[in-house]
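#data-curation
PF: Archiving a pair of folding outputs for the training set. Convention for this channel: one message per protein, sequence first, structure tokens after, nothing in between. First:
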Amino acid sequence: MKLLDINLILSLILPICFVSFFLIILNRFIPTQNNSFTSILQGATRFNTYIFLALCSSLYGSFGLEIASIILSFTIIFLNILNITFYLIYQDLSKIDFNYFFKSIFKNPLIIASLLGIFINIFEISIPIFLNKSIQILSNAALPFGILSIGFSLVLNDFKSNFKEIFNASFSKFIIFPILTLFFCQILNIDEKIVPILILFSIMPTATSAFILARQLGGDFKLMGAIITIQTLVSMPIFIIFLQIYF
């Protein structure tokens, strides 16, 4: 599988863009506070890497992890830049200037790691055995610790007062996103073996790291915590439905 598979990349980038556009339009008719809106956008577009990798590995084996690595390489970069851009647009510009914007992008460890992985893959750079073993040990530990962090991030409060915001983010994430993903998979003639993995990606609950970004850039981090909690819980029956359809 080629790393630079344009159709595969577009099959996820385009749904993300359309979901963002949908929420922008919705916000015109059902407005929310700017700091809340940025949290809604994160909730609707970002994904939990740890759950995605765990499911790809258990359901699709090495093939699933190969496709997941391609997906993550580009979507992590795109989503971080997209969400930081929305914070720049919707927050007080005196707090977040363009210098801070570019620093936030190029100091983001997820973006750095993704760019480094793409660079190594494209130029087929061989990694020394000792370094490869060290990275493998760290990666084996990262997944269980990441899953543990999901449990620690669950916050059960303020649901009633934030119901509209949580609903908008979750409806966009679990209904609109997968429908658009399936649509673009058909339009772009994506391999039938890959389509379920892309659908699985589209129904991932939002990233736990979204809470950190919301707090750093002045978003509504309490709302973000509530969205993470609800989506993580709601995703469980949605995964069961996914398994019934594709297995």
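PF: Second:
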Amino acid sequence: MRSVLGRPKISRKVRIFPNPDRSGLPEILQQYIARASIPDLALSVPIRIAWKNTALKFKPVANWSPVNFEQINFLAEPVRLIHMWFQLWGLIPKEGMDSYLGGKGRMLVRLLKHFKMSDVTGPKMDQPELVTLLAETMLIPAYRVQQYMQWKIIDRQTIEGTITHRGISASGIFLFQ
């Protein structure tokens, strides 16, 4: 994954909060937090991540395309904002906004900053955006202890995480080896 996404640069210009109480988390998740190479800065609010020199497939059968991302996440209410920019055929500027804000998911894509190519909203985007936010709990540690997160132990190496926000829930299985 790191070779595809590149290495994130986590902003160091953020306000730091004390480490939250992690005692209620499953032991395997506490161990992961202790061993993770993500700095405690990822416990801050908001968090900014710059993904440079990354690649993305826009369709399952497409080639990888170079893309840059600027990501901002907020914790009190789960918010995820991603601005991406890339070039169509390596020449024409194209940008997108992938977001989960106020319980609503959205994917907006524009050509030359002004021409809307795609704008997908509604229930078909709300839950997928929320499940993406759930997946990012491994990158942004403070999400794991928020009141909208629930963790259930499945076995010694596996937990299930569920995020619930504004009547929408998304779950995922996390395997730690």
